[in-house]
Amino acid sequence: MATIKAPARLPELVKAAFAKALHEGDLSYFPTHVQDVRVGALSFQLRFSPSLANKPKAPPKQQGTTSSPSPKPFDPFAYTSPPPRLFVADVGAAHFLVLNKFAIVPEHFILATRDFKPQTHVLDADDLYATLACIRAYEEGSSSSSTAHGGGALFAFFNCGAHSGASQPHRHIQLLPVAAMREGLPEDSAWSVLASRLDGDDGAVAPFRTFSDAIGLDTSREDLHATYLRLYEQAVRAAAAAKDDEPAAAKSGEEAAVSYNMAMTRDRLVLCPRLAEGGSIKDPDTGDVVGQVSLNGTMLAGTALVKTEAEWDALRRSPRALTAVLKSVGVAQPHFVEENIKL
Questions:
Q1: Which chain regions cross the lipid bilayer (predicted)?
Q2: Phi and psi at residue 91, in whole multiples of 5°?
Q3: 144 CB-near residues (< 8 Å, 6+ apart)
Q4: Nearest to residue 182, comparing CAs of 321, 302, 76?
């Protein structure tokens, strides 16, 4: 088994690479407005980026003749594809780190497989252990003076399946510095990473069911993978019961049976089965639909991103509309209590 080790001084490497790539135009950063909204007993982050509408779009597909094969889709996570200034470092022989080309959170970076592996398949032990190695290296490389408000912490998430918010077929796990996720919030904000608060399989604080277990920075490769497979099987059973289907067994290297999000922090591994990618947002006064919100694995951090000012205004005025979407995207959590509180 090859050694999996994240680079030393990982925070410095990411920070320097992000600053240089941003300066030289190799990535785009979209600053956001952010506000706490109440979801039950949770403080949830609502974010809106006015400039996100200017994000470059993929060129339209060309209509070819039946005799000409379709061009191979561009793979941004192919080992030879990222511009050199987006590359951060290798993590063992099978994974590497690259900056997110379109960042909402500063210093957002990605762990990708060197060889193409499908995003839709059950994760391998090395995928999980490489993620934990990055979390450990980031904490070890952070100075003691920067650890306030999660300065040395990473939130890792994985989107799998049509309902998970996944957008690229090449396997990749995304990593966000928790301190950067707090930017824009007031010092006394009650927000904290949701995944770290989920302590069991009932996830009573969230409107959707989650399955989680404790891990540590020293958890072994084998134990980490076994924990993931156990939680995955629980998530599959929950989704199957919600849809009156028969659950399928979990095997590494095979297609996942359900859409799900995974989150990893220094002390917890969490899986959330997904039944939908998002839902409609209605104006609280008129009842008119003003937009659609789509959610990926960042909802396990307790965050949601909207793309228009109408959506931003509607959800700030009526946080219960966000709660309704969160209830609909996963398996309903019967123990969730919707408190009548406004921030």
A1: none
A2: -125, 90
A3: none
A4: 302
**DSSP letter for each residue of 281-311:** EE-TTT--EEEEEE--GGGGGTEEEE-SHHH
Contact 86, 27 (CB under 8 A): yes
Q: How far apart are CA 93 and CA 114, in angstroms?
A: 8
Residue where the block lists tokens 């190799």: 26
Which residues, listed in sequence order, are joined to residue 96 by a DSSP beta bridge?
Answer: 90, 112
pTM comes to 0.91
| Distances from the Cα of 197 to the Cα of 148, 181, 184, angstroms | 18, 17, 22
Matching residue, tokens 């990708």 = 112
Candidates 318, 228, 229, 308; CA nearest to 49 is: 308
DSSP 3-state of 224: helix
Q: Which amino acid is at 335?
A: H
Q: Terminal CA-to-CA distance of the chain, rounded, Å?
A: 51
Tens of pLDDT along 83-96? 788 999 999 999 99
* Helices 125-140 and 221-243: angle between axes, nearest 10 degrees: 120
List all residues 6 or more positions away from 132 whose beta carbon is below 8 Å from its beta carbon: 215, 217, 219, 224, 264
pLDDT in tens, 235-293: 999 999 998 776 666 666 689 999 999 999 999 999 999 999 999 999 999 999 999 99
In angstroms, rounded to a whole number, what is the distance separating the alpha carbons of residues 194 and 206? Answer: 8
- Neighbouring-strand partners of residue 54: none
Residues with Cβ within 8 Å of 180's Cβ and at least 6 positions away in sequence, in order, are 105, 106, 107, 108
SS3 content of the chain, % helix, strand, coil (to 5): 30, 25, 45
Which residue blocks in 159-211 are alpha helix, DSSP H?
178-181
C-alpha torsion 87→91→92→93, nearest 10: -30
Strands 303-306 and 42-48: parallel
